[in-house]
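cron nightly-structures :: item 1 of 1
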Amino acid sequence: MGSLPLDDALFSLNPDTFAEESTAVVDFLARYYRDIERYPVMALDAKPGSIRKVFPDAAPETGESMDRILDDVQRDVLRG
């Protein structure tokens, strides 16, 4: 049996960075659940497809920081 070629991109994630960013995501989710009462069940201006307008048509060529991603989620997904 042969082996699959390994792309350097598979190994580009630093384990310490992974741990830090994973912690940031878990902290974000914990804050959300702790403060869930402050979020409306549905945004007043919510219409089908409205959130799609906020995001680009294609994924970015390069990644963004986890802080920026979580800021985007807070601002654009959880907005009320």
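cron nightly-structures :: done
The chain has a mean pLDDT of 83.
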